[in-house]
Design a protein that fits this description.
7 strands; globular; four-stranded mixed beta sheet; 33% helix; 5 helices; alpha+beta
Length: 186
């Protein structure tokens, strides 16, 4: 989709057509009532972008199970993917945004968007393997650069936490659209 005219078409399709939530309480209630599992959310204030250490290796039992499944052939399926199948390195960090909503409620939601992980790996390569330098580059992109834009989150609930977690929402996509200029609004 075109990014011309300050992302006008993307903005129209994703922000003007869908309901944009500004209060987490509304989203949490909708999830608990099993009425919402995907949403567009606009935080009022971004307070930070943080990372936490994660396990550096995949669970060996799960890896063994995946490898076993890749060996099971299916009679009528295209099996060419098995020739190139490999397990990717595990992301050693999780990333989260800290923010406030329109009610002033402070929250921290994990970013599960694949682009955050891809950015980390690219920054790690460009930093010659220096993890702290790579993490700072990721923070600079997600905090410094994205916060200069009209930042929206695509939120989703995770099935395992949907009904009982105090807040079952995670960030599945970050949408940093350029601010609209006043003359374009007319």
């Amino acid at each position: 989709m075109d990014t011309a005219d300050n992302w006008r078409e993307r903005r129209r399709l994703l922000v003007r057509t869908a309901k944009v939530y500004r209060r987490l309480s509304e989203l949490i209630e909708g999830a608990k009532a099993n009425e919402l599992s995907l949403a567009v959310f606009r935080p009022t204030t971004i307070k930070g972008f943080v990372w936490e250490d994660e396990e550096r290796d995949w669970d060996p039992a799960k890896v063994a199970e995946i490898r076993l499944r890749t060996q099971q052939m299916e009679l009528f399926a295209d099996e060419t993917w098995r020739e190139t199948f490999s397990i990717i390195p595990k992301l050693p960090y999780s990333f989260s945004y800290r923010f406030e909503d329109a009610d002033g409620r402070s929250s921290e939601l994990q970013v599960l968007d694949w682009e955050a992980g891809a950015l980390y790996w690219n920054c790690l390569r460009s930093s010659d393997g220096n993890e702290m330098a790579a993490l700072e580059k990721v923070r600079a992109k997600y905090l410094d650069e994205f916060c200069k834009r009209d930042l929206h989150f695509f939120l989703g609930t995770t099935q395992q936490f949907h009904q009982f977690a105090p807040n079952p929402w995670v960030i599945i996509g970050v949408f940093p659209i350029p601010h609209e200029q006043q003359m374009n609004l007319i």
